[in-house]
Amino acid sequence: MREERDLIQQYLDQMRRSLRAPEAGRILIEAEDHLRESMAAALAAGLTETEAAEAAISSFGSVRAVVRAHQTRHGRLAAMVGQHVIYRVYTRRLRRQLAGCTMPRHVGIIMDGNRRWARRQGMADPSLGHEYGAEHVENVLSWCERAGIRHVTVFVCSTENLANRANAEVAFLMQVIERVIADKLSRNPTWQVHIAGDLDVLPDTTAAALKTAVEASRGCTTGAHVTLAVGYGGRQEVIGAFRALLYEHAEKGTTLVDLAETITADDIARHLYTAGQPDPDLVIRTSGEMRLSNFLLWQSAYSELYFCEAYWPAFREIDFLRALRSFAARERRYGR
To answer: Which residues are catalytic?
Structure first.
């Protein structure tokens, strides 16, 4: 594997040195995607690893040709068309690979990287990334719907975000939640909306918008459920569930000793925000960070985890399908 990795790395390094900084990142991402998929296809066709690497590089084009294409308007347009065609081909191939595979019932999504994406796009205010990220939720839900996934939980805003981010950023994020996410999910709902998080820590207008989305979608009959984790923290959720359980048994007159001897995991689960829903089979986090960040800590005890380098607004359907492909290839043991 060493030789073909060296070939591809040399190719990418040469391209990185040859391209202008503003365009290098996007083109390199496309090149890496193309090389990875082309190598997989070449290996499946029986080529050796070195032959597969050489074929992948050849199919993308020489560094000189790629650079020349992106230095002219005509060349950039042709490259965009070519990338769009490649993207469509990748998407169809991934869908074929997933045909007949086991799909997760419930997917949790940590939509990370909005501000970093905005900075990379050259936006003066990185908070604008939150708006693009919020708009993207609708796209991802459509991909889930197409894949037959009926439960999705999206980590929109954590308790730590509310406490540690600048007031102006938090205020903008709340407006985005009201104006984009809650409003869109309220109109002609195809997903029944649920909320995970403490609405009391949110501005009144945000809490009202989320409650409206819940009520507007209550009669949704598609069987699809989306949970918005807003003002949410996994540890806080478990504490709240345990507190609710204590209150429940206090009303019944149960002693603490009796409760300690009989309490089960199901007793706690009944008081979680996701009560009545299956635990997430797959948790996806974008932006390259590899941690759960206090997201669905109880529910994700046996979840499969998938970390994607793309920032959330740049998370594409092929990234999503690759996550599903990775899930389908895993053997789930549930601690056994």
So the answer is: 112, 161
